[in-house]
Specification:
By secondary structure, the chain is mainly α. The protein has helices at residues 13-26, 40-46, 58-65, 69-74, 109-119, 122-131, 148-151, 156-159, 161-164, 176-183, 186-196, 201-217. It has 12 helices and no strands.
């Protein structure tokens, strides 16, 4: 979306190449993907409609813990891996985090900070992490050594997700502009428009560039 100077650079040959590739992939998709909600890819995978999706560990969790023998049988045939590293030469993933913060206007800042500190202690954090089998990846490096990650080799890729992740708004600065672009689905809409044929890749990129510039000027 932007470079290290917070300049909008989405209108590039790399973006165009990605959208052209996306158009080829979209032709092979099951019907209805443009109207999917957050759980739709999980449901499609567990229904046998798709065999690959970019996801936290939730699909495996459902299959592994399901009382339905058909779903439980799927668990042994579900695997996880990191995304391939492309021509940029480094990982470009997005791990699933739980974000926590204390607002400046809170009446009880010390109590709020103490609660966050308490929840990040191993006594509270590791049982929570184990119960979710790594659904939300750790935000502290110390928890890379959690025994959880060795209990099932299918958990292990999620251990390394945080250190391979790029933050939203990379390579620019985190802030209101990067947050607004993410929440306004600037990239998501660009991809959907281009791959589905609603717009040409050139038109979709131009619209995304215009929308992004509106936020990065603010």
């Amino acid at each position: 979306m932007v470079n290290e100077h917070n300049e909008v650079v989405i209108n590039s040959k790399e973006t165009m190449a990605a959208l052209e590739y996306g158009r080829e992939l979209y032709a092979t998709f099951v019907p209805g993907t443009l109207s999917w909600l957050d759980p739709s890819n999980n449901k499609a995978f567990l229904a046998g409609q798709i065999s690959l999706t970019y996801n936290p560990i939730s699909i495996y969790y459902v299959a592994k813990t399901s009382p339905d023998p058909t779903l439980k049988a799927m668990a042994s045939d579900i695997y996880h891996a990191h995304l391939p590293v492309g021509p940029v030469g480094h990982a470009t993933e997005l791990a699933s985090f739980v974000n926590c913060w204390v607002f400046k206007h809170t009446k009880y800042p010390n109590a709020a900070l103490e609660y966050l500190r308490f929840m990040l202690e191993a006594e509270q954090y590791e049982p929570w992490q184990r119960a979710s089998i790594g659904q939300m990846t750790q935000t502290l490096k110390a928890y890379e050594s959690s025994p959880l990650w060795g209990e099932d080799p299918k958990y292990t890729p999620f251990r390394d997700g945080p250190k391979l992740s790029l933050y939203a708004g990379y390579a620019g600065r985190l802030g209101a502009a990067s947050a607004a672009c993410r929440e306004d689905f600037v990239i998501v809409n660009m991809v959907a428009e281009a791959v589905s044929g609603q717009a040409t890749p050139q038109a979709a990129v131009a619209r995304a560039e215009q929308r992004a510039r509106r936020y990065y000027r603010a």
